[in-house]
Amino acid sequence: MAENNSNQTFTPISKTYDIIIFGASGFTGKYVVREALKFLNTPNSPLKSLALAGRSPSRLSVALKWASGPNPPPKIPLLTADTSDPSSLIRLAAQAKIILNCVGPFRLYGEPVVSACVESGCDYLDICGEPEFMERMEASYHEKAVEKGSLVISACGFDSVPAEIGLLFHSRHWAGPSAPNRVEAYLSLDSDKKLVGNFGTYESAVLGVANSNKLVELRRSRPKRARPAIPGPAPPKGSIIEHQKQLDLWGLKLPSADSIVVRRTLATLTENPHGLPGVNESVENVKKREAFWSSVKPAHFGVKLGKKSLFGLFPVIMLGIFLGLLSQFSLGRWLLLKFPSFFSLGTFRKEGPSEDEVARKKKPDTEVITRVMGPEIGYLTTPIILVQCALVVLNDHDNLPKGGVFTPGIVFGPTDLEKRLQENGISFDFISKKALST
Ligand SMILES: NC(=O)c1ccc[n+]([C@@H]2O[C@H](COP(=O)([O-])OP(=O)(O)OC[C@H]3O[C@@H](n4cnc5c(N)ncnc54)[C@H](OP(=O)(O)O)[C@@H]3O)[C@@H](O)[C@H]2O)c1
What we know:
The chain is of the alpha/beta class. It has 17 helices and 15 strands.
């Protein structure tokens, strides 16, 4: 991927809304609205104007009422748009600086929204966790997005900002000459209540597994990306389930979107060792950006689900088996989508979690443990991250690339996103560093 052209002068277009939340009536969308309202016209916030968009004004109105409760709903425009009507999307994109897209599954509904944003030079952020969609958008729209000055960044939610910013945070705790060979992320979803996900996320996962061959085909059709220089040999594949003594967790290897997104960030960094130049960057920011990226040490990255007991992994193993077997056939997919609660052993429901359920919530010689921690992943952490990413784009526009399809890590790594997340309930902590006996 070529470096962004930072020599062109960027003329900001006057837009009616700083942010339009598309899919605001959805389960996740309404939580994103609630998070965005916290920053609308508050002191020092760059968010001065907000609109909601979706297929049904009445459902948008219900979502706004829920999101602003117990206060009366603020006067916010409710705009109608449907992904099957490209002109409605062009109208949205023409009015917004940024569209926050919460309409999923992205494999089904995402492309027309990306296309409209790129065409209109509008910035686009979403909460997608579907690798094939993200890579297809990069293959199809990157060049045009650079040309039109549209920043397209998927995975600005739980997928994959904690992994991306977490890896960069972790990297800073390796003082030279030591450098990591691999970073294993353990995803621990412990809560005093059973964790439940909404149908939209489950449907996206079923369709993702069913179409996994499309990602393989897409990659075969594209030029190979650069590989980062990582010290030492590639780590062994290891077993699918293992006990992690230091953390006292049972880990189950996950085919996670996070590892794919991190790999793309590291590939872009290898191709652009100083990161991506901003559209109108100050000399001071250039120095800051270059110093930031020179401190990052690429590593092999993997994700495991971490549970206190082996038995805790059982529902995920069963869901993985059901998804793997049934998603390959149309009858199997129909059964999976018809009975989400049965096949996920209660982890996903058609009607989503209740508000109460959401509210709770070479041989290596050195080991560094860091921790990223936040509230419930889908409907609390994801909206916090998406809204903070959007505020960075509004606030820090001159220091970000003018346009292109990118991962969150390569765009937001050198910005104040990590600090903003810390201030909004997502913590990044250094836990320990020790020498390992070899
Ligand atoms: N990465 C993460 O961490 C994370 C977390 C949470 C969710 N997600 C993803 O977010 C997506 C949404 O999940 P959800 O649970 O919120 O789903 P949902 O409740 O089903 O919401 C879907 C939204 O999309 C809208 N929509 C559907 N078809 C549309 C169309 N043709 N045109 C315009 N709008 C349309 C719906 O509008 P109507 O009201 O008109 O039906 C609704 O607002 C999923 O892909 C999920 O995987 C990701």
